[in-house]
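Appendix B. One record, verbatim.
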Amino acid sequence: MPQEPEPERDGARAARRQQFTEAARAERPDLTLLCLLIGAEADPALDEAGRDAVQIELDRLAGLLPYAPAGGPGAWARNVAELLGTRCGFGGSPADYRRLESSLLHEVLRRRRGLPILLSVVWMEVARRAGAPVYGVALPGHFVVGFGDPAGSHVLADPFAGGRPLTDEDAELLVAGATGEPLSARMMTPADPLEIVLRMLNNIRAWAQARPEHSAVQLWALELSLLLPSHPARLRHERAQLLVQRGEFLAGAAELEEYARVVEAVDAAGALAIRRQAAAARAMLN
């Protein structure tokens, strides 16, 4: 059975999650804050002072960029790539996919290595602070950034490759390599902060799911996902199953029964199967 958390730590976690919930439901969600609250779930030592230090570092990096460079989106992309990719050494490699730190903003800033989506967050938050027209592009399998007008003149860059500029043909190849599908206009739509956060949490869940010894990481990633205003309903089922796997049979069974009530109206057979799972979980206590 998993050990109970210490009361103080449990209280701190509850406070962080309340802050996460409020930030996710704000009129304009603060992407950096949400990323840092994710980081604090993985590393409770990342306190408010540590989170402030990350904000200060992003401000510092933004201050190194020239203001309103001549040359439009292309100039912004080149300047940010020269600063972050060349001078600061931010980038990624296949090995970074094997590390949880690659999905945590404060660690990516420290190590200057990370997954494409976290490196893109660094690019976006630094460039935004400097006044750049920047946005995230959630291509399937590979997150990148755009500068300029998404519906007009714009430039794409790949922070994972140090800020390498991407042509439309490059973007098509990335999508084809990840999904086998053609690039669509929908894929080029700017990603909003909550879409980015959910994708980050999905990455963390996938990392932990492949490593059963890290089921606690999978659990908190699920629980944060469920705090977002919009999330796939199946995540509730996944959380219930994970609780059972972790030996929390009563809690898992209760979650399964609640999920069965949710799906019963649209899938009576599926609800019955879920109730059987709940009964099996309760039987593990006998």
